[in-house]
Write a structure and sequence with these properties.
5-stranded parallel sheet; alpha/beta
């Protein structure tokens, strides 16, 4: 049989099968048709061994066919006019800013491509408050911030002066931050999203945390959604995709991702040789998400409906994203010849369309009807999260200034011709002689556009974004929860980790406070001795516990419960930190004062998730980060990858983070009690970092004296005065964390063997001391004619005699940060360098922070002050058993 006859027969057979399927659809509906297709596939595999090729993707067309679209509920014309106004003012904001200040930056093209996505959501979906008092949560794509400001200006929430000071926040009257920053605009923005990838992962864990609140009875289930607006290039960040299976596993139908697939990132195509929409569809479908593709606008409906043989859809699926980008900037004639010209049948399909009509055919992401249908399906989906993949053109509307071009991400300026083109395209009533100023335009309050806009937002409960702190301050926590830790352990050895867990257990039993505490742990609860909490409060599971645990017969079995309190996150510090952020910002986002305690291996905190910690600071997050197994030498055996000697250094840059390295039980109790007071009673926008170790040690009783509590919180106090106050040789020993006990040993050796009277000081926070000292320096610089302020560290140590020897389990730079304000010679001992797999004794010898090296450092400092001879120091090296030729731990 000739090939042409075979082809014709195939076409006829295919047509008959399609007709038959259409008949089943018309009589039995989609479910019956789906079952039939499954039966056919099973029959083909069983009877003929035909294995259908696996495909995680669907054809390159809209998920929702035009016949299934719901009616558009608003006025398309009015919403088009409003959208045009938003577009203009967003563009004008960036153009004006760069006219006034060369290089100030800003982004036009991202919002230009996403305007329809946002406007449909603002007019019909974003609920500032539901009928039951809940609300939607929205993570706005950071580079689209000009569009969000522009809309707020039209709503009357942001003044023209603020718009004029976009990216000029220090101008009189203030300005607008470049991107979403709650720290800078605490009544407007809620979530910082421009460290790309952090928005998606936070949205996932926020949606899960909402379910957690609901299942624990802290919040009513009221149907609020979490929306995350993202870029297709952003999806390459590991955080964007790393936790998507959590969302499907937890059946987070309150979560909606909207990915603006404009096919471009900063330098060029996201997938020039591939198809990013198809790639993301495969990933998210495979992960169990509901995927809705919005590729083609209404202009394409008739073509796709007439494509009975699938020829057009197949051709659309063959073209790479890089080539589509070329289509966006070329003429209709080029588009016709290159896309449709590959087959005469395709050319026949578009022969009734002119080149201009072809060039103007909209993509799905620019068509409000298609976007509305997708969003409506997303909010009505149950049992799974949804991702909407909307195809758009980057820089849409910029024309020759950058529409669809590789340079468009960097576009900041437009000349008068380009402004005129944009003005005319979107119908903005600005005369030609004013265009060079790129003026803002807002109709009067009684205009049809403003009335419509206001009515839509009123119907949806109010304006967005808006950040409102609704949670009332907590009542004071009883002192009785903390008093036992002031008494010490009377010789019993416990680690500071166990002290923390004991205190946490007591707080969890408090009838008022306990229910608000959110313990978070990334699969290390047993390491930290927290397994007793499994039974006490349970591990959260959205489905409860549908199996019999293997350790069911033990007292501390692994207990999962729908109302469980512990967030046992598995091996993910990033995910755990996102839960911490969700809980630590619930006071503003949900009006609930949840108090997160996130305990983790301290090594895997700041250096692994520092970006999320910075975002938490920006969000005015509250709570306690607890770095467990802390200290380079305190975590024995684990070695280089686990031993943390620098997290307190990495904590220094975070402005509103208080960092403490407590040595004793009472210090931990004082810090946590004060932290709860400052964050949840005084409502300060701060959060805490505490390091705790796993070395069992005897905890002393809290010393007497009114300045101890103040000293613990400010960072320094005298823990133990010398027993040889009349000694001629004096020195001051500063210790913190587990190394404090080495300092106390060194005090005994120095006093008994070398006649040096030593006071021992507990340094609970180098950061607090550093911050206070710098505050004083700054004040003194700005007030030269007034009495100088004296830093707390200087005041506290002013009468101390002799050199100061500071030893910690962290880098030497930490104590050295105070050298300017310490009233004497400062010698710093620390743990610079890579860790080792060894015992604590060997590690402290290797890093030179044990008692004998503290003794040697003290004697060396006294020799430099001519208080003793170098022969004493040389003899001490031998007596203490120190190898002077040992390798330098900082570089070995």
């Amino acid at each position: 049989m000739a090939q042409t006859e075979t082809d014709g027969l195939e076409v006829l057979e295919t047509r008959e099968w399609v007709d038959s399927l259409d008949y089943v659809l018309s009589k039995g509906g989609p479910n019956r048709a789906g079952r039939l297709l499954q039966q056919l596939a099973l029959h083909a595999r069983r009877e003929a061994g035909i294995n259908l090729p696996f495909s995680a993707t669907t054809p390159y067309q809209n998920t929702i066919p035009s016949r299934s679209q719901p009616p558009f509920p608003g006025s398309q014309e009015m919403e088009r006019r409003i959208k045009s106004l938003v577009r203009w003012n967003a563009l004008a904001m960036v153009v004006r800013a760069n006219k006034m200040q060369e290089g100030i930056g800003g982004h036009i093209s991202t919002f230009a491509s996403a305007a329809t996505l946002y406007e449909v959501a603002f007019n019909h979906f974003f609920r500032a408050q539901t009928e039951s008092g809940d609300r939607d949560v929205v993570y706005f794509q950071g580079h689209a911030a000009p569009g969000i400001y522009s809309r707020a200006y039209l709503e009357g929430r942001i003044s023209k002066e603020k718009l004029q000071n976009f990216r000029r926040e220090l101008k009189p009257g203030g300005g607008l931050s470049s991107y979403p920053h709650p720290w800078l605009m605490p009544e407007f923005w809620e979530f910082p999203t421009v460290s790309m990838g952090l928005g998606p992962i936070q949205a996932i864990y926020h949606a899960r945390f909402i379910k957690y609140l609901e299942n624990r009875g802290l919040k009513q289930s009221a149907g609020g959604k979490v929306w995350a607006f993202l870029g297709d290039g952003e999806m390459d960040e590991p955080e964007s995709l790393g936790s998507i299976t959590l969302a499907s596993r937890e059946r987070l139908d309150n979560l909606i991702f909207v990915v603006n697939c404009n096919l471009q990132r900063l330098d060029g195509p996201v997938r020039g040789n591939g198809k990013i929409i198809q790639e993301l569809e495969a990933i998210f479908r495979g992960a169990g998400w509901n995927v809705i593709k919005v590729i083609w606008g209404s202009d394409w409906d008739s073509l796709i409906q007439s494509d009975r043989d699938g020829l057009l859809v197949r051709r659309l699926g063959e073209v790479s994203d890089g080539q589509y980008q070329k289509y966006f900037v070329e003429s209709g004639a080029y588009f016709r010849q290159n896309l449709f010209g590959t087959d005469p049948r395709l050319l026949k399909m578009v022969e009734h369309l002119s080149d201009d009509q072809l060039a103007r055919m909209r993509l799905g992401g620019h068509d409000p009807i298609k976007v509305h249908a997708a969003f409506r399906a997303a909010v009505e989906t149950t049992g799974a999260p949804t991702i909407v993949l909307a195809k758009t053109i980057k820089g849409y509307g910029l024309g020759e200034a950058g529409e669809g071009k590789n340079i468009t991400h960097q576009q900041k300026k437009l000349n008068e011709d380009e402004l005129q083109m944009f003005r005319s395209r979107f119908g903005i009533p600005i005369p030609d002689d004013e265009l060079h100023q790129a003026p803002f335009y807002r109709p009067s309050d009684d205009s049809a556009e403003i009335k419509y806009m206001q009515a839509r937002r009123q119907q949806l409960g109010g304006y967005m974004p808006t950040r409102k702190v609704k949670a009332a301050p907590l009542k004071s926590v009883p002192d009785s929860h903390f008093e036992e830790f002031h008494k010490g352990t009377e010789g019993r050895e416990v680690s500071t980790t166990m002290v923390f867990v004991r205190l946490l257990a007591k707080l969890l039993r408090d009838p008022e406070l306990g229910k608000l505490i959110v313990p978070i742990v990334p699969d290390e609860a047993r390491t930290f001795g927290m397994e007793a909490l499994f039974r006490q409060v349970g591990i959260y599971s959205s489905v409860g516990q549908n199996y019999e645990p293997v350790d069911m017969d033990t007292l501390l079995y692994y207990k999962e419960a729908k109302n469980g309190q512990i967030l046992e996150e598995g091996i993910t510090e990033s995910g755990s930190m996102c839960s911490f952020i969700a809980a630590g910002t619930a006071y503003a986002n949900h009006g609930i004062n949840t108090i997160p305690f996130f305990i983790y291996y301290s090594m895997f905190g700041f250096q692994r998730i520092g970006d999320l910690i910075w975002a938490a600071a920006d969000m005015r997050c509250r709570g306690f980060l607890v770095g467990g197994t802390a200290g380079r030498t305190t975590l024995a055996g684990e070695g280089l990858q686990h031993q943390d000697g620098h997290s307190h250094v990495l904590a220094l840059p975070v402005p509103n983070l208080l960092a403490y390295d407590p040595a004793f039980a009472y210090e931990i109790a004082i810090i946590i009690q004060d932290g709860i007071k400052r964050m949840y009673i005084d409502q300060e926008s701060i959060f805490y970092y505490l390091t705790v170790g796993n070395e069992p040690l005897s905890m002393p009783e809290m010393p007497q004296g009114s300045n101890v509590r103040e000293g613990v919180l400010k960072g320094l106090y005298r823990f133990k005065a010398t027993a040889k106050s009349d000694a001629k040789l004096r020195a001051q020993l500063l210790g913190s964390g587990a190394i404090m006990f080495e300092v106390l040993k060194a005090q005994e050796i120095l006093e008994s063997k070398y006649g040096v009277g030593c006071d021992v000081w507990s340094v609970t926070s180098y950061k607090q001391l550093y911050r206070d000292a710098n505050d004083c320096e700054r004040w003194n610089m700005l007030h030269p004619a007034e009495a100088a302020k004296v830093p707390y560290v200087t005041q506290t140590l002013k009468d101390a005699q002799g050199p100061f020897i500071a030893a910690s389990d962290y880098m030497k730079v930490l104590p050295e940060s105070l050298s300017k304000w310490v009233p004497g010679q400062l010698v710093s001992l620390g743990t610079d360098g890579f860790g080792r797999s060894e015992s604590r004794v060997a590690l402290r010898d290797f890093f030179e922070v044990d008692a004998k090296h503290i003794v040697l450092a003290t004697l060396g400092a006294l020799a430099r002050e001519k208080k003793i001879g170098t022969d004493v120091v040389k003899r001490a090296v031998q007596e203490l058993g120190i190898n002077p030729d040992k390798a330098n731990p900082a570089i070995s």
